[in-house]
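# step 3/5: fold
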Amino acid sequence: MFSPVRTDTAISPRTNTSHEFHVIESRDWINVIPITSDERVVMVRQYRHGSREIALEIPGGIVDPGETPQGAAARELLEETGYQSEDWSQIGEVNPNPAIFRNRCFTFLARKVKKIADPKPDQAEDIETILVHLADIPDLIRQGKIDHAIVVAAFHFYFLGTQAR
């Protein structure tokens, strides 16, 4: 049986002593910064069991087998929010936590998103879709109202890119 959590024993090349390391196996992840034509970000308030809090996030999820990261981004955006875009670009990629994961998280920008359907979240997802003015995002991060690390990283990529233009 496959276990997504495993314990590896490795020998330190520096000390030559053995240590146990815990690893979480996961497929790659994606997240999406979806921006409407009037410069609002489609965000989700989502209950997160690990922190037992409602987090303010952007749509995101796991890349399914046989799916491209951009395909997963489009699917997750539609499922979680009911929005869709024809204007996509990948703006970043990070290792979510190299101490315990080997996977990658790809960040996509979706421009001129439009609502075309009602959200259809997974059974375990407790999600509310909200629109936030793009100009308010830096203050929400500074105030700790957006504190999910890969969401902060996604906006970092976004604002770095807009500074270069």
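# step 4/5: annotate
The first strand starts at residue 5 and ends at 11.
# step 5/5: archive (pending)
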